[in-house]
Design brief:
Strands 2-1-3-4-5 form a 5-stranded parallel beta sheet, sandwiched between helices. A 4-stranded mixed beta sheet has the order 6-7-8-9. It has a 3-stranded mixed beta sheet with strand order 10-11-12. Helix 1 runs parallel beside helix 7, helix 2 packs across helix 7 and helix 3 runs parallel beside helix 7. It has about 325 residues and is an alpha/beta fold. It starts with a helix and ends with a helix. The radius of gyration is 29 Å and the shape is elongated.
Length: about 325
């Protein structure tokens, strides 16, 4: 029986979210445009479980390019409304639309001059009557078998908040680089903020050789730099990248004897290897390495706009920086 109840809970909550799709309507567009044209912040407010959902919505908005913060309505009654200005928009969440603490701050919000977006489960309620836009998050029934604990209703409100945040993100042409500005900490920040230039080996650490040198000489160069490869350039003056020779290439060739060691590097190198620019994200370099066909690779030459070799990035460099 408990397992069946759990499955029924998920079905009900999934149905509650699906029911929101037709409600991405004119009112949703009005709410979105209000926020896009807002010169202040989105102040999310709600009581109890709606407040917890509101905190998450505020955090999602703030991290995706819409300045937002959460205001507890009970604290608002006792002075925190001073954080609200006429240029702000209030996103008020209440399933009934009659939550006492929320209704109590409406007159003050009106006097301040902030616009109001109501996110409720009832169209005929005090909150909607005082709002400039209405986001309908009504549910047929709660997933709680007692019909008491907010379950499907809070899930619907959270999903509608995500839909609003994603729509705003798209309208603002928000990029991964923009996202990185608000997530500088931890692995996510490192993956989004670090560029190839921050991680690559260059200068005297760069293993390079010209195509007329022998494979044996290339092997010494590979060993000296410890990166498992050498970049083959047209000349040390031009640094025009011609190819790449790895220790793996050499090992595979040894299966057919060692005579090739005296041949020119140009005969064994991989021509036109995968490359990357220095201003690309380190995470993008990792993606290229992992998705390379027919097998993943562990390093990438870094080139400038003229296809001159300026660096090399190795998987171990990404590991050290926490990108992987």
């Amino acid at each position: 029986m408990p397992i069946e109840q759990a499955k029924a809970c998920l079905e009900l909550e999934a149905d509650a979210i699906r029911a929101l799709i037709p409600r991405i309507n004119d009112q949703f567009v009005i709410a979105m445009n209000m926020i896009l044209q807002c010169s202040g912040r989105v102040v999310v407010t709600g009581m109890g479980k709606s407040g917890l959902i509101g905190k998450k919505i505020a955090a999602t908005l703030a991290s995706t390019g819409t300045p937002a913060f959460f205001l507890h309505p009970a604290e608002g009654i006792h002075g925190d409304l001073g954080m609200v200005t006429a240029t702000d928009i209030i996103l008020a969440i209440s399933n009934s639309g009659e939550t006492t603490e929320l209704i109590s701050i409406l007159p003050a919000i009106k006097r301040i001059g902030a616009a109001i977006i109501a996110m409720t489960g009832r169209e005929q309620c005090t909150l909607v009557q005082n709002a400039d836009a209405f986001l309908n998050v009504a549910v047929e029934k709660e997933a709680c078998p007692l019909g008491l604990a907010p379950t499907a209703s809070t899930t619907a409100a959270l999903a509608m908040g995500d839909a609003l945040a994603v729509a705003l993100l798209s309208a603002r042409n928000f990029t991964p680089e923009d996202f990185a500005l608000y997530h500088p900490g931890g692995a996510l920040g490192r993956k989004l903020l670090l560029t190839v230039e921050n991680v690559m080996r260059g200068g005297t650490d760069l293993p390079v050789i010209t195509p007329d040198k022998t494979v044996k000489e290339a092997l010494f160069a590979i060993t000296a730099k410890g990166l498992g490869a050498v970049l083959v350039v047209e000349s040390l003056g031009s640094m025009q990248l011609l190819g790449l020779l790895t220790d793996g290439d050499i090992r595979r060739s040894l299966e057919n004897g060692h005579e090739f060691l005296d041949k020119p590097v140009g005969e064994l190198m991989t021509k036109k290897p995968r490359t990357i620019a220095k201003d690309k994200l380190a995470g993008h370099a990792l993606n290229i390495m992992e998705k390379n066909q027919p097998r993943p690779i562990t390093l990438l030459p870094v080139v400038d706009s003229q296809f001159r070799a300026i660096g090399i990035i190795h998987l171990t460099d990404l590991l050290r920086q926490g990108v992987v």
